[in-house]
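Batch manifest line 618
LIGAND: 2-acetamido-2-deoxy-beta-D-glucopyranose
JOB: complex structure
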Amino acid sequence: MVRSSVAAVLALALGAVAKTVSYDFNVTWVTANPDGLADRKVIGVNGVWPLPVIEVDKGDQLLVNMYNGLGDKSTSIHWHGMFQNGTNNMDGASMFTQCPIPPGSSFTYNFTINQNGTYWYHCHTDYCYPDGYRQALIVHDVNAPFINDYKEEFTITLSDWYHEMMEDLSKEFMSLYNPSGAEPIPDSFLMNDGQNRTFSVEPNTTYLLRIINTGNFIAQYFYIEGHNFTIVEVDGVYTEPQEASTLYIHIAQRYSVLLTTANTTDVNYKIVTVADQDLMDTIPSNLQLNNTNWLVLNADAPLEQAVVTVATSDDLVPFDDFTLVPTDGMALLPDPDIQVNVTVYMVNLMTGYNYAELNNITYTAPKVPTLYTALSAGDLRTEEVVYGEYTHPITLAHNQVVEIILNNGDSGSHPFHLHGHNFQVIQREPPLGPLFNSYLDGDPIGYDPDNHTAFPAIPIRRDVIVLPPQGFTVLRFVADNPGVWVFHCHIDWHLASGLAMTFIEAPELIPTHVQIPEDHYAACAAAAVPTVGNAAANTEDYTDLTGQNAQPADLPDGWTPRGETAMAFSVLSAVLGIISLVYYGLADLKHRPKEAPAARESSEGEVAATTTEVTKQG
Ligand SMILES: *[C@@H]1O[C@H](CO)[C@@H](O)[C@H](O)[C@H]1NC(C)=O
Ligand SMILES: *[C@@H]1O[C@H](CO)[C@@H](O)[C@H](O)[C@H]1NC(C)=O
Ligand SMILES: *[C@@H]1O[C@H](CO)[C@@H](O)[C@H](O)[C@H]1NC(C)=O
Ligand SMILES: *[C@@H]1O[C@H](CO)[C@@H](O)[C@H](O)[C@H]1NC(C)=O
Ligand SMILES: *[C@@H]1O[C@H](CO)[C@@H](O)[C@H](O)[C@H]1NC(C)=O
Ligand SMILES: *[C@@H]1O[C@H](CO)[C@@H](O)[C@H](O)[C@H]1NC(C)=O
Ligand SMILES: *[C@@H]1O[C@H](CO)[C@@H](O)[C@H](O)[C@H]1NC(C)=O
Ligand SMILES: *[C@@H]1O[C@H](CO)[C@@H](O)[C@H](O)[C@H]1NC(C)=O
Ligand SMILES: *[C@@H]1O[C@H](CO)[C@@H](O)[C@H](O)[C@H]1NC(C)=O
Ligand SMILES: *[C@@H]1O[C@H](CO)[C@@H](O)[C@H](O)[C@H]1NC(C)=O
Ligand SMILES: *[C@@H]1O[C@H](CO)[C@@H](O)[C@H](O)[C@H]1NC(C)=O
Ligand SMILES: *[C@@H]1O[C@H](CO)[C@@H](O)[C@H](O)[C@H]1NC(C)=O
Ligand SMILES: [Cu+2]
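JOB STATUS: finished
ARTIFACT:
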């Protein structure tokens, strides 16, 4: 008796006893019409779409047996925000940590969840999650600081939605007809994979809302008429409570807020989402940027459409996440051991298509998944060369403090995500808010280490940060998670056009930290993807990259975007004999010519190296 009660007290103190949460996912095509405008094929699980919201308690083991029943498409699942510490092979990123799972193959994801908060899961193989293969993943934590402050919780996903299949849209996107790289415009916007959602609530009562942007492309503003709310979590990090009236939620970002409802049962309140029109090159007249869903206090009162009174979405002033403070109080990391300095560019390469580059590299998948190269390369696994030039590999030593300087040479904003970690955001200009687009007036401005505002003493940490138009952000993290981790823009169009790079963290420790189960290798065999060798699948000489997948060549010097357009069309007319097919905004080119952002104060003789080893102070 005594023993068991001690055990019970211990179990209570430690929270719920860890359990295994298991799912069998038979992934198949199903038909859905979430906006009421068009039936389309979507990726369902066990014949159902929307997909199941996965809920676990902190400490649980998540086991998902996935069978690819699509018949015509490879797939995988990334568990967005999960650190996968010791289970890098469960990260789900095709050609980084596993092979794409071909039709007819099975693959088991199995990992322990020891993190807090709001996450999601989605396919991470070419262009697959916007076809519907995404959903929330919630981690309940009985020790959350706000656990006693709310009556009930709601999970709210926001997303853009296309009527056409990604495989069709992607052919238009990466094409000679689209040399400016204009992204396909969504057809509508969803909440919880539908529209006109109602959330039944009681007056003067506090709720926890977990809000996730599971879309492909478009950031959204979020507010509730007549209410403010209190932010308590971002991307799995608890924050000191801060009041806000409007959130700006870019792709893959999450916010948890406490909402106390008005003390009335007279009316129902509008939950308003407004799509960020700055991301779109054209706005079709029938695209409904503003959408209304409702907090229902009185089922008999009307559900009215919101009237958004600002002139443009830029006039909505969102909360600046840079000012948040994690409750765990983790201090600013010390000066970095290594700096990774990369700039986003949108360029045209020799094919005539538009690509995204970090510095001069557009990510091009290797022939062997990078993790399998790390496992098979022996002592050479610490050499960047074995991972190939076009995966943009950076090797990190165990426990190094890493600083990423991310400059934006592009006029669009980009939500950047790091796998395997969250990062401290120690600098971002311009800030979210009225100045967000202020660097568009001139040339891009890069981060200047000799002229910046003070770093926060306790910086916010998250796993997706918005990189402002022509501005910059600076991030820090500790390389304490041996494995292969992607750093990429989470707009799926941009990931597909190469806006990604690869960190190989503590390569010498990867073989002892990561074990690959048989079914993972079996998926590779079925997909005919080699599991040993360097990025070129060379198993004889790991330093010989002959035959690696390479990015297209640069255009000859002197091509301006208009010149590129002209070239694209002359190639097109030579090939097809037509010159007049224009899909999107060719006359008004969105992306600027490639030129390095000027650091605020440039010193002579600065080397444009990607990484800089820094002698650690102190
Ligand atoms: C998956 O679902 C499809 C369609 O319902 C069915 O034909 C197939 O047998 C299922 N496969 C597995 C492994 O459950
Ligand atoms: C939501 O309501 C609007 C306005 O009544 C309507 O146009 C739209 O079709 C509805 N959406 C769905 C999915 O029913
Ligand atoms: C899942 O992983 C746990 C921990 O490594 C292990 O004990 C368990 O056997 C695994 N389950 C399956 C089905 O692979
Ligand atoms: C709301 O409820 C709290 C108790 O939960 C109470 O103290 C407060 O006075 C109420 N406010 C209003 C406006 O009714
Ligand atoms: C919300 O907060 C703003 C200040 O951030 C304040 O001006 C406004 O009155 C608040 N609104 C409500 C409904 O509390
Ligand atoms: C996770 O939750 C625990 C309490 O359960 C807390 O101590 C810890 O600081 C939280 N971690 C983060 C990153 O918020
Ligand atoms: C609103 O608050 C007042 C007092 O603060 C209370 O008497 C009344 O019952 C509340 N109304 C509702 C609908 O909760
Ligand atoms: C939608 O929001 C825009 C601002 O982004 C505004 O110009 C427009 O009038 C709004 N439309 C409706 C129907 O509220
Ligand atoms: C990028 O620039 C570096 C340094 O100038 C050069 O060595 C490398 O070959 C370039 N890579 C590509 C893909 O152009
Ligand atoms: C991974 O686990 C090790 C201990 O096993 C810990 O020191 C490290 O902080 C963890 N890293 C992450 C990103 O979870
Ligand atoms: C430092 O940055 C500020 C803010 O952008 C800028 O106004 C100022 O000119 C810069 N100072 C120098 C010396 O470059
Ligand atoms: C980063 O690289 C850019 C372009 O190569 C260069 O202009 C800038 O000075 C570098 N910044 C730092 C902090 O090294
Ligand atoms: Cu992007």
